[in-house]
Structures are given as structure tokens and as C-alpha cells.
Amino acid sequence: MPIRQRRYRRQSAMHKPKPKLKRLMGEAVKPGVARSALDDWLERIERQRPDAIELGLERTAVVAERLGVLQPAPRVITVGGTNGKGSCVAFLEHMLHGVARTGSYTSPHLLRYNERIRIDGQAVADQDIVAAFEVVERACSDTYLTYFEYGTLAALLLFVQNKVDIALLEVGMGGRLDAVNVVDADVAVITSIDIDHQEWLGPDREAIGREKAGIARRGRPFICADPKPPQSLVTAVKNTGAQGIYIGSPGFRCTMGENTIDIESRLNGGQLKHYTAVPKPELPLPSGLCALQALNCLDLSPQLATLRRTFGETRLPGRQQRYLLGQGQVLLDVAHNPAATQRLAQKVATLSAEGQVRRVIALFAALVDKDVSGMIAPMLPLVDVWQVAQLSGVSRAMPVDELARHVRIGGASAQVYRDVESACAGVLQQFVSGDLLVVFGSFHTVGEVMGVLDNCAEGIREI
């Protein structure tokens, strides 16, 4: 099915984090560089081509060839999937720490654009990104680029300049026509396949799976952790000639214990390797399994101690991130599609069953092109108080009255706020022992709340 090319305006508004959140995001800002320099560049790029999504590889491929970045590292792992992509990259970064020099490109960001481009897990400094943008601009000539394409090319250039050993590339959307797919992956990963971005990828899992399979390459491993992959994906991978590795098959499966898991993974030479008593991770398990299998395919098998430490320690801001605030708790999650909110609901239900929660308060804001009814449905039986808010400075934000209407259709009522900051302040004023504030709906929502919580630095700590 041909993909309809659609366009909408992207917001490049930057949030300036306080020192605590700068440390949280691993930010690297060098002295003497005005923060506004990068802001100005991002706004400039947006003005040049204000389209956020215009799928296609032609523009990026032309400029990438001019820049000489089609091979940004000796080895490349490309990670796609509806949910869990960023988690997979985080697992890979952790396992490769001290073993290989990594360059990671992920999107979107929570607080600062720098989060998207990391060398050895550290965000690249402002002036380095600005310098990369300048080189990309000179290489463009008469070729226009979207905001995402500019960022992709800048990341690839920085990886070449920093001589990384492995490039970890997260697909922005879909796969086949995403800008990162100009690079041929040595290992391609799909973490999950669910319904999202239907206007661009198609109406169902079969159409979406076909698009995601587009990152596969002939003769190279293609790892899929979706337990029921669409037949379209399986067929496309086979037709490509890639080596399909599917979760649950011999050499890519695990056994669940009460607190730990045993993992079976196949090495590049075909031998099976077993990892025992591995802690259950806080981040999605399929993402961790994909990361392990990808490294085994590249003959970079981690030691058992490394894997245990990785699964036990790896966290990612905004992914079921919990804080203690006074006598209550805050749970931040960037869940922005029904599958992701289903996982969030399971976490909330677990906390409630453990007796940690007396009242659940939801702070929710989302984008207009999302399945809002599907997103809130798993949470409706669990939430006692709904707070809906208008996202600030985001043209694609769903109007707050529309958000409230979806909640009412679900059989609940909602308090309406003009912005996320006001909603968060309203909740915290009445926050009491046993309360759980659940923030979800988009990266924008979580990012704005993180800024508010940073002002509570004296009374808040991460769990």
C-alpha cells in the first residue's frame, strides 16, 4: 500500500532544565557557549522547512553522500518499533560501556535537543551540534531538508567526526522511508509492532509491519521481539533475504522466574549461550532481549555479570520513572499510544495491589493525531481523579476541552487546566499521603512536568 506523505508543523521549543535535571539527562554543556545559539539554529531549520514529517529517503541520501556519512561507523545497529526503541538503545549503551565507543541517535527529546545525539552515553555539547548543522547546511545546496532530516545528518556527521565504533540509530517513524534508513544496518531490530501513526504507516498491524520491515538488509540479522509479528513483516524480511530472528524461537527466548529470568541467545556462529538469574529490568524486557541478541550477532557477547548489571541498573528518563514527593509518589511515563498506556496501567495496578497507593491522580495531555480514547481506556478503571491540560506552544496539541470530552465519554469527569504547569501545581497543592500522580500522554507532557518537579528539589527524590 503506498504511503501517503503528510505534513504538519513541528515544534522546536526548547525547555531549559535546572541543574538537577541537567544531571539526570547527562547533559554536556561546555563553558562559554550561549545556549541560545542552538535554539536559534533549531528555529532557523524549522522556518526553512516547517514540515515535521515528510517521509522519503531521497533528500537525506543525496546530502549524506555529499557529507560522506552513509557509513557512520564500522558497525551499525538500527532500532525500530512502535514502543521500546529508546529503551533498547539504552540497554545497548549500557552493555557497550567500556567495550566500544558508541554514537546514539534517538528522538524525540524531553528537555533539550542535545539528548538526541550522544557519544558514549553523554549528550553532545551545543557548539558541536551547531557546527554540524553548519556543515550540513553547506552540503544541502539546493536540497531542502525537514527538521528530522537535519538532525539525522548532523548525528551521522558527529559520529564520523568522533570515530565511534558502533552507531545506534533509532528510527523516528516506521522504517522503510525514515531518514535513518539511508544507512545500511549490520543488525536491524524491531522491538514491537502496535497501532500508531496510522496516517503515515497504514491503518493496521499488517501495513505497519510492512513499513517497519523496511530496515532489514539482505544477509544480515533482523531481530523482532513482537510475539505475534504480522505476516506482512515476516514475508517482507524473507523476500529481502535478511536473517529473521524472532522472539520465542530457539536461541532467542527466556524463562521467567519470580524475580529473575534465564535467557537463551544464539551467537553469530550458531552456538547457544545461556544467561542465568538475570534481574527483571525496569525497562521493557523485549527491548533488553533485543539488545543482547544484537550484540551476540556482532560477536560482542556481554559477560553474565555485565548483563545482570545492565538489566538491573538501566533506566531511562520518562519511562515509568518514579519519585517520592512528600508522602506521595509521582510516576512519569511518555506513553502516547494504547499499547504503551496498557503497560503503564499494569504498573499502576501493581503499585495499587501492593498497598502503596490510596488515590490515583492522572495528569494527561496529548497530541491531536493520537488515539486518545484508546490511550485513556486502560487507565479509566484505575484513576480516581483526572486532570487534563493544554500543551503550551505545541501546534499539534489536542485542545483541552477535547481531552476532557474523551474522558467523559469513558465515564469519568476531568478537571481542565490551561497548561500543564497549572495542572501540576493544582495537584501538588492537594497532594496527600498515599497519592500517586501519574503523568502521561506525550513527551511534551512529561517534559513540562519534569520542569515543575525540579522546583520541588528539596522534597523530591527518585525511587
Helicity, in percent?
A: 25-40%
Widest sheet, order of strands: 4-3-2-5-1-6-7-8
CATH secondary-structure class of the largest domain: Alpha Beta
Number of strands: 18
Secondary-structure-derived class: alpha/beta
Q: How many H/I helices?
A: 16
Q: What is the 3D form?
A: globular
Radius of gyration: 21 Å
Question: How would you name the CATH homologous superfamily of the largest domain?
Answer: Mur-like, catalytic domain
Give a written overview of the molecule.
- The chain has 463 residues and is α/β, with parallel strands linked by helices.
- The protein has two domains: 19-313, Mur-like, catalytic domain (UDP-N-acetylmuramoyl-L-alanine:D-glutamate ligase), CATH 3.40.1190.10; 321-462, Alpha-Beta Complex (Protein-Tyrosine Phosphatase, Chain A).
- 37% of the residues lie in helices and 19% in strands.
- It is built from 16 helices and 18 strands.
- Strands 4-3-2-5-1-6-7-8 form an eight-stranded mixed sheet, sandwiched between helices. It has a seven-stranded mixed sheet with strand order 16-15-14-17-13-12-18, sandwiched between helices.
- Helix 3 runs parallel beside helix 6, helix 5 (126-140) crosses helix 6 (147-161) and helix 8 (205-212) packs parallel to helix 9 (231-240).
- The longest helix is centred in the last third of the chain and has 16 residues, at 338-353.
Short structural description:
This protein has helices spanning 19-24, 36-48, 58-67, 85-96, 126-140, 147-161, 198-201, 205-212, 231-240, 285-297, 304-313, 338-353, 372-376, 400-409, 420-429, 443-454, and strands at 75-80, 102-105, 117-119, 122-123, 166-170, 187-190, 221-224, 243-246, 252-256, 260-266, 272-279, 321-325, 328-332, 359-364, 385-389, 414-417, 435-440, 460-462.
